[in-house]
Design goal:
The protein is mainly β. It contains one helix and five strands. The protein has a domain of 51 residues: Beta-grasp domain (Ubiquitin-like (UB roll), Roll).
């Protein structure tokens, strides 16, 4: 298992915009650093919804395509 240098930067796409972020950043940290809301949103990583309970454990990877949606209730 290789460890990633915490100062290394990776490139990913957040809401369609290329971002350079530090390696080992989790989804919760990504929201905070990107000034995105942490409540009332859903996160999709590479076409898979990530439950809020996994945000602290889901580490961003190079070339991830991450979309943050406003969670809307309705019918």
């Amino acid at each position: 298992m290789t460890q990633t240098d915490p100062l290394e930067l990776i490139t990913l796409h957040l809401n369609g915009v290329e971002q350079h972020v530090r390696a080992n950043l989790n989804l919760a940290e990504l929201l905070i650093l990107s000034d995105l809301p942490t409540q009332g949103v859903a996160i999709v990583v590479n076409d898979t919804v990530v439950p809020r309970s996994r945000w602290m454990h889901a580490v961003c990877q190079a070339d991830d395509n991450i979309t943050v949606f406003s969670a809307v209730a309705g019918g």
